[in-house]
Every structure is written in structure tokens, then in C-alpha cells.
Amino acid sequence: MTKSFLWIVIGLFFPLAIQAQDALIPEDSLGFRDFLILQKEVTGLEYQFLIMGDNIPDSLLRDSVYTFSKTDLGLVSGQFEDFGKLDTLEAPLAQSNVAYQLQYLVFSEISSRATVREYLSTLIENGGHQIKVVEPQSKIDLVALASKSPYSPLQKFKLKFVSDYRLFGVTLTIAFFFLVASTMIAAMLVMKARKNQRENLEKEYESIVIDPLTSLLFEKELHEIEQMDQEEIYLFFPQQMLSKKLFKHVLIESIIGLNKKMKGEFKEKLKALYKKLELDKMSIRSLHHKKWDRVTMGLAQINEMDLVEAMPEVKKFTNSKNFYIRSMAVSTILNLSEKVDLKFLRDQTYPISLWQQMNYLRIIRFVSSQKNIKLEVLFDSENPSIRIFGIKLVRILGRVDLIENLAAFAGSVSDEEKMEILETYASFGAHMEAGFVNECMKSSNQALVLAATKVAMVIGDAESAEILVGLIHSESSFPRKLSLLKSLYGLDKERFDTETTDHPSSEISDIRSHILDPMLQHV
Amino acid sequence: MKKILIIEDDKLISSLVQFRLKKDGYETHLVCDGNEGIHAIDTLDPDLIITDVMMPFRSGIEIIHHAKKSRPNTPIIVLSSLGEEEQVVLEAFNLGVADFIPKPFNPNELAIRVKRVLK
Amino acid sequence: MYSFLFYLILEIFGLIFLVLSFSVIVIYLVLMVLSALEMRDYLRKNRFADYGDIITSPIAPGVSILAPAYNEGQSIVQNAQSLLSLHYGKFEVILINDGSKDDTLEKLIHSFELQKTNYVYHPEIETKPVRGIYRSKNMSYRRLTVIDKENGGKADALNTGINIANLEILACIDVDCILSSESISRMVRPFMEETNQRVIAVGGVIGIANNCDVQDGTVTTYRVPETMLGKFQVIEYFRAFLMGRMAWSRINGLMLISGAFGFFRKDLVRTVGGYFPKTVGEDMELVVRMRRYLDEQKIPHKVAFVPDPLCWTEVPENEDVLARQRNRWMRGTIETLQLHQTVRFNPKYGVLGMLSYPFWSIFEKYAPILEASGILYTLILLMIGDFSAVYFFALLVMMYLLSLLVSSFSVLYEQIAFNHYKDKKDLRKLIWMIITEPFVVHPKIIYWGLMGHIDFIKGKGGWGSMIRTGFKKAEDKKNLAEQSRT
User: Fold this and answer.
1) Is the four-CA dihedral C429, C430, C431, C436 of positive or negative sign?
2) Is A487 inside a domain boundary?
3) What chains are in contact with B, requiring at least 3 Cβ pairs below 8 Å?
4) Could you please report the per-residue DSSP string of A34-77?
5) What Å distances lie between residue A395 and A346, A389, A470, C56, CA to CA?
6) Is residue A68 part of a domain?
7) Do A1 and C50 touch (CB under 8 A)?
8) Is the pLDDT at C467 greater than 70, yes or no?
């Protein structure tokens, strides 16, 4: 691309170059003469002298250099090629007062100055003649001549240009690389150094923390710790350490770590210490941090150390944009609220993931072993994922008492919720809800039908069996047929036998032996 | 004075246990990974071993194996955050450990169990 | 005239190489930054995760582990046992004996008290015939199912497993991989975290087990392999997994999940018709096809990546074996890219079409060709004595420095995130490898890649023409199967 572009550019400038050469040959007769003298010899170009009249001195006539011969016009000298000798040849003629004329010949033919000029420029242009220039005598002349110097070959000009853009590109690339690479390396090294330093300090602090904590825990009773002044507790720790942020951080981590692994009165002692050391204030303060992980960390600490006084703050985070913050906030509230009120969960707008459900379930399960939780609040949520979670909770926590609540709205919810309700009924063995199951089996949603038939296996009635048989007859997909027959087998073995024994279709008999194989029954 | 070897990677927990057992007048030794644990069993000849199950380098199971082979009469107490129904814990019981204490635990309770095992 | 053309071509190539080297540098630096950010976030996230809960929670999804085996008689029983002892609540293990010529099946039957069942195999995805499906009489092996089928290759074997899998998540693994007991719970987490974006697949890191001590399914002591090729692959795997995949997962542009350790949503895999057995790059092809399908359906989705060290494998340290592996990888890449040409620079396919696909084309598929011709180019310039050879030589040196930078960064990541190679000697060995690798191993990799190209052009596999036209739509794979069935 570049190269062809270059050629176009050169092509455009070429005519100008020729004109420049033309201008090198002077137009005036004297200048032209001087120019020719300088060139000495030019291929095909000669000159002669013509003398009008015949009154010339004999000395000249007889001079063998001129070899004059007589013509109609007068005496004509021989033809000379070397213009360098023009001056020496002309001088005797000028001195002898004869009328003479200088004539130019192009290929032995007498030509006018203009014709000779034209011939010369063509010759130069074709490279047939190398122009000679006057040796420079002064700087001013040099400049003047430089502007007149002939156009040099193209090759060199091109190379310089091309290597320039490359040089530019490569330099730029290398500079860019070194800049970024060095900043990255510097950043990495700084990070690693900082991390190392921090880790070393943490290790040191961890060993410092052990002694005061163990002596406080074993030598003081809970009520003693509660009655101690802050200063008294501070005396257990090395001086000035507690003013260091990192030390406090290590202390928090250690207390929380112990709290997780300790039981009984030790847990209470740790919590009392946490508050006496005013670490709780640090936890609560980190809720206002910009980084999400610090906020989450603060929430986790509040959760672990039962900092009930932070509850109003924590509540603000339940609908946070950040997944981790809102999960942790919800867990904390579930854990710390006096009476577990799920209304705040109902009002969550973000869909809740399985991960969150798992975390909340763990806490709700723990709490529900002590107090009664109103799960039904969740059924009124605007958020479908919360409603589904509510139904799941009914099943997992075994809240048979809520079946009626489920039944009340089961008919009017989305198919996804219906499937969840079906599964719940099946796990409770809720035979009284067979009607709902049959209803679902008649749905146009294949997935719901399939879910319902599986449930029918457990809690179906006679009508369910009829519907199942109908479905089996009209079903063409093999895997669904297998699933339907499995349900029928689970629901009504006799009916299954009449449907499948000695069936002409090998497909059905294959399915029959599959279902009857005891090895395939506990999957 | 009875010698007790404590193999546990959590420094805080082990120091706490050590502190509590010292109060009862035992001589205690702390090591914090499996390799050191095996070495200490051979060199210290302890009267009781308290070990965690999940640790760096060597698992608690390996330590128990080793201890049962080289010091078949030394009782072992397992201290672990794994539940009692976990495969590894069952394996430990099969190897004949004296007692199992799940975390979270109460150091005072641990002290009582140590006393009972050493009787 | 000829010399003019020669110089013109030289010029054009010069420009191309200049632009390429510049973009290589920019892209790798961007990848480094992206992966660093992703790693930082992941490590932060991990602080708040309690994986113990997943194992027993009724909310956690079920996982079907699919492990194809071909002539694995030596180790199959031990491998199956370690799979069965993974820590997870709801999971099943499906071993697929892909027509082994040794005693793989007999050993399994004997050790796990297997019996042939009356399982009626009616596949949704077409596969080679199944000879029998086995289960155990012993209740402690109730999680195990063994399929005995005729040989059809890895993709076909996995498809058979997909057909009979019962649970929501599929874990496709190489049977000889060492899996950490935590691996399922960690890999399942991204699926569980999905809120408004469907998580369709999760990939994991493959570690290198050569020369390491292994115990209870985890690598206990890490040691750098003895051979040059082994050490090279350690660095290469760091680069690929900790840097490459981490960065791509940050912008949700992952195109490849390692076939040795990948988790997928079963319903989606079945919808798109499972693995495509006609390509040697079946793992990459499936991910691309799944992504394409969801993009065509306009469903937002994500392919996630878990950088925790959970899976280890023995990599080939023998030159011939490695050459074959690289040749196959190259062909797999070419085939996948050919099959899904429609995606290229198509804004409909988002990051996949606009970034991942072009990246793979240039930096994976054409990399060996471009590199080889770049070096050739510099040599020609040097020979004809062109002055600009100096610049290109400088560029080559730059590329070398870049490779040093990228490799040492990946090793540094490993140091910061996991710090497995504890011995200082190991680190020194790795650093020496980083410095020498571009001269001693890299040329071989280029050569093997080129051979892959040649083999692809020769049409190894016989499905050349089909692959060259490619899939018009993601569902084409399924239609293809249906056509051949009727």
C-alpha cells in the first residue's frame, strides 16, 4: 500500500523535475556559450566558424587548425567537438577584425541556438549527457547551485521515508511496553512487599494476642470481665499496641476465630471482651467503608459477635446492590432479631440465588428449632424467587401446618411455584391434595405435567391413575413415557400390570422390565 | 508429671488448650503440623496425644496410624470441627482413639476428658 | 518489475507484523490487568464462603459425574473409588467404558459387585450402541452406574453418559484426574450464585501432578517435574488458567472449558444435542455451541471459572505424546472456529463474536503461522541486508521480553494466590524455564501447531467438508443427528 502510494506521489512530481533541468541551460547567447564551454564535449554536437567575405589574413587561412574551405556563403572552418577550446579558437578571429559567425551543428547539421538547447535538454533528461557545473566559489553560490542541482535517483528517498515510519512504530511500541511493564512490575513488587510486611506483622501480633486472651479467659469469671474498666483490660495487653489498627484487626479475627470454636461460658466471655475493647465500634464503623468486602466483613463480625445494637444499620443493607453485602445483611438479621420477622425478606427486590437460599435456610432452620417463624409472610412477596423459597422452606422445615395456606393459593400461581408446591405435597404425603395434582396433570405445560405425574406416584388417587393411563397412550416421546409408566407403577401396580404385561410393543415391554429391575429402583 | 502432646494447626486453640492443661499440672508440648507431630510422637514419648484431623502435610488419620504402630498404649483424643458422622472420623474411631471432641468445644470439658482418659 | 513486487510484499508484511506485535503487547497487558482484578475479587469473595454447607444442604443441586474410560484397567478401580468418596450430598458417578480392549469392565464388575440391569437405553442424543448398563448390589456403591458401550471416542462416550444422567449438573471429567474432595462443592457454587444471568458452565484449573505427592485425592507436596517439557507445561498451565481464563471470565468471554474438568447444566447440554463427536476439539466446541444457542435465544448467560486448585493430572513429558496432543488441540481449535464462523465479528454474539472468536483465530489458530513467518521475514531482511531488519530484530527481542513478563506474572499470581511450590529451588527452576523456554520449547510448539494445520488441510477425520461449511445455527448439531437417525 505505502509503496504504491509512494509511486503515485513521485509520478506527480516528475514533470516538475524535467522543467527544473530545462532551466539549467541558459537562454541568452553568452550564458549558453559559457554553459557549452563548461560541458566540453556533448555527443552529436559540434561547432564551426563562418567568415563573411574573404579578406582574412593569410596566416589564418593557412592555419591547419581551422582548415577553412570556400563555400557559397563564405569561408567555413572545420567542425570542432571540444567546446572547451572555443575561446582559444575564437580569439585570433576576433583580433583580426574579420566578420565571422559561430555556428552550432547537431549531427553535422547547422542548427539554431533554440534547437541546440532543446537537443541538450532531451539528452540530459535521457541520461545521455552528464551536466557539468561551475565549481562553487562562495557559499552563496553553493546555495544557488544547490537549488539548481539535478534531481537525484528515487531509491534513496523511498528507503528513508519507509524506515522512518517503522522506526517510529517500533520506538513507540517499545516505549509503551517498557512503560507499562515497569509500572506493572513496580506495582506487583510493592503489593507483594506490603503483603509480606502485613503478614509478618499479623503473625507477630497473633502470638502477642494469645497470652492476654488465655489469661483473661481462664482467670476471670464472666461477671468479673463485665465489671472491669477498660483500663484494667488494657493492662493485659502490651502498651500502645491497642492503638494500632492492624493489631485491633488481628484481635478481632482471633476473638471471632475462638468464638467459632468455643462453647459455653467462653462464648459469653469473648463477647464481653469484644465490647469492652470497643472492637464492636470498629465493626460497626466498617459498615460505612467504600469497599464491599470491608462492609461484608463488618456485617460478618456483627453477626458472629451478636452486636444487636447495630441492627438498624444492618437493615439498610438488605437491599444492597452488592450480592455479598445483601446476603450477609440478611443472614445477620435472621440471626440477631429477637422475634424473627421475615417481612424484610419478603420486601427484597433482587431475585435470591440458591446460594443465598442455602445460607438463609441454615439460619432459619437453626432459629426455627427455638421459636415459631411465620413463613407465610413470604407467600405475599412480590418477588417470585422469594415466594418459591417460602414454599421450599415449608417443605424443608416440615411445616405441615402450612399446607392449608399453600392450598389456598396453589391454583392461582405460576407453573414454577406449582411445581414447588407439588413437591412439597409429595414430601408430606398430602393425599388430600390429589385434586390439585390431577389438575396439574391436565396442564399444557409439559414440565408441569411431568412434575405432577411424579407426585401422583406418591399422593395420587384413582382419578390420577386414569389420567396417567390417558397420558401414556397419547405420549410419543420415549423418556416421558418411561417416566409416566414409572409413576403408574408407583401409584397402582395392578393397573401397571394390565397396561404393560404381554404388550405387543417391544418398547413397552422393555420399559416394563426396566421398571421392574430391582437394581434400578434406588437411584 | 504426665506429658501431653498437642497436634493442632490453629495456634490460638492449641495455646488455649495448653494453658488450660498446664493449670491442671500437666507437661504439654505443642506442634502445629502433621510432620512435626509424627516426629514428636517418636522423640517425646508422650502419655497422651491430642490431635486435629485436618492439618497441613499429614492428615490426622496418618498420625493416628503412626501413633498406634509405634506407641500402641498411648491414648489419643481427636479434636475436630468435622461432624461425628464424617467418613474420616469414623475411620479414626476404627483405629481405636480414646475419645472424640467436636469443635466448638469447651476447654474445661476437654480438661475433664483428659483427666478421665489418663486415669 | 519483479524486484518491485518483492519489495512491495516485504513492505506490506512489515506493516502487518508491526501492527500485530503492537496489538499482541496491548492485548497481553490488558489480559494481565483483567486477570489480576478477577483474582483479587475471587480471593475476597472466598473469604465469606462456607463450603461445608453445600455438602448437606437440600438446596444444593445434584451432580452427575461422567467419566469415560478407555483401556484404564490398571487404575480404574482406584479412580472409581476416589470419585465415589468425594464430599458431596447429592451426586452419582457414571463410568463409561468406551469399548476398552483390556479388562477395564471386568475389574469394575469384580470390585464393585456389579450386575447387568434391564436398563432400557433410548438415547436422546445419538450414540454408538450400548452393550449393557451395570449397577451394584452393594448399597455402599449405590452412587455408581457403569455403562459398557462400543468404542466411539470420548465425545460419544460422554454423550452416552449425558443420556442416562439423572441430576441437574453434569461434571465431565477425565477418569485419571485426581480430584480434591472439595471439588464438587466449589465448582457448584457459581451455579448456585446465579441470579439474573444463567450460569451454563463452570470451568476449573488443571494442575500438574507429575512428580508431586498425592494423598487422599489431594496433592500434598508440590514439586516441579524433572523434564524440560514437564517444567514448561507447569508454566504454560499457569499462563493459560490463572491468566488467560481468569481474564476472559472477567469479561464473560470464556470459550473453552477444559475437557478434563468441566461442569455443565444438563438441560442445556441436552437441548443443544450434546458433544459433537466428529471433531477432536469437542470440549471447546460444546461451550461455543451452548453460548451461541443462548445468544440466538437472547438469554443472558455466563460461563464461570473457579481458580481454586481442585483437579490435577499427569501431563505427557514424552515428546511424541505431547506432539500428538498439541496437534490434536490445534485441529480442535481450527475445527471449532470453522464450525462457528457465523459468530465472527457478529455483534449478535456479544463478547463471544466480537472479542473471543477473533482472539482465538489470531492468537491460537494462526499464531504458529504468524510467528514462523515473522521470524522468516526478519531472516530475509537480514539476508538481503535491508536496514529495517534491525527494527524487526528489536521487535523479536520485545516479544521475548513480553513472554518473560507474562510468564513471570503468572508464576507470581500462583505465588500470591496459592503458593504451592514452597521450595526455593523449584522457583529457581521455574524462572530458568521461563528464560529459556522461548528458545528451547516454543519452536517445537510452533512446529506442532503447524503440523496440526497441515493435518487439518489434509482432512484427517474425514468430516472435513462438513466442518468447513460450519453450523448455520447452534441447533444444527441436533438436526444433524436427527437426519442421520431417519
Assistant:
1) positive
2) yes
3) A, C
4) HHHHHH---TTEEEEEEESSS---HHHHH-TTT--EE-SSSEEP
5) 18, 10, 30, 16
6) yes
7) no
8) no
pLDDT tens readout for residues B23-65: 888 999 998 877 888 888 888 889 999 988 776 556 677 788 8
Residue C17 lies in a domain: no
User: A510 CB near a chain C CB, below 8 Å?
Assistant: yes
- CB of C465 less than 8 A from some CB of B: no
Over residues C17-67, the pLDDT tens digits come to 888 888 898 999 999 999 999 998 998 888 888 787 888 888 999 999 999
Cell of C387: 536496514
Find out whether the peptide bond into A312 is cis, omega within 30 degrees of 0. no
Name the domain count of chain C.
1
Q: Looking at A149, A165, A193, which one is the last position of a domain?
A: A149
Inform me whether the pLDDT recorded for A78 exceeds 50: yes
Tell me which residue range forms the domain holding C166.
54-319
Do the domain assignments include residue A87?
A: yes
Give the residue among C326, C235, C223, C217 at the shortest CA–CA distance from C280. C326
Give the gap in angstroms from C-alpha A221 to the nearest C-alpha of chain B. Answer: 13
Which domains does chain B carry?
Answer: 3-118 (3.40.50.2300)
Alpha carbons A121 and A275: distance in angstroms, whole number: 105
Residue A327 lies in a domain: no
Q: How far does the CA of residue A472 sit from the closest CA of chain C (Å)?
A: 17
What CATH number is attached to the domain comprising C238?
A: 3.90.550.10
* Chain C residue with Cα closest to A177: C25
The span from the CA of A431 to the CA of A240, in Å, is: 70
Whether residues A514 and C120 touch (CB distance < 8 A) is answered with yes
Q: DSSP letter for C346, please.
A: -
Chain B residues with CB under 8 Å of C220 CB are: 57-58
Looking up residue A500, the CATH number of its domain turns out to be 1.25.40
Question: Is A9 at the interface with chain C, CB within 8 A?
Answer: no
DSSP 8-state class, residue A429 = T
- Residue pair C474/C292 in contact (Cβ under 8 Å)? The answer is yes
> Is residue B57 less than 8 Å (CB to CB) from chain C?
yes
- Rounded Cα distance between C32 and C339, Å, is 30
Q: Which of A149, A171, A196 is the last residue of a domain?
A: A149
C-beta atoms of C59 and A513 within 8 A: no
pLDDT > 70? residue A18: no
ipTM associated with this complex: 0.87
Q: Which three cell numbers stand for residue A247?
A: 493489631
Decide the pairing of beta strands B76-80 and B27-31: unpaired
* Neighbour subunits, A (≥3 Cβ pairs < 8 A): B, C
Residues in B closer than 8 angstroms to C215, CB to CB, are 59
User: How close C192 comes to chain B (CA, Å)?
Assistant: 24
pLDDT of A10 reads 40
Name which residue leads in pLDDT, B65 or C156: C156
Please tell me the total count of domains within chain A. Answer: 2
Nearest CA in chain C to B34: C220
Specify the pLDDT at position C212: 87
> Rounded to the nearest 10 degrees, how much is the dihedral formed by the CA atoms of C353, C358, C360, C366?
150
Domain that holds residue A123: 12-149
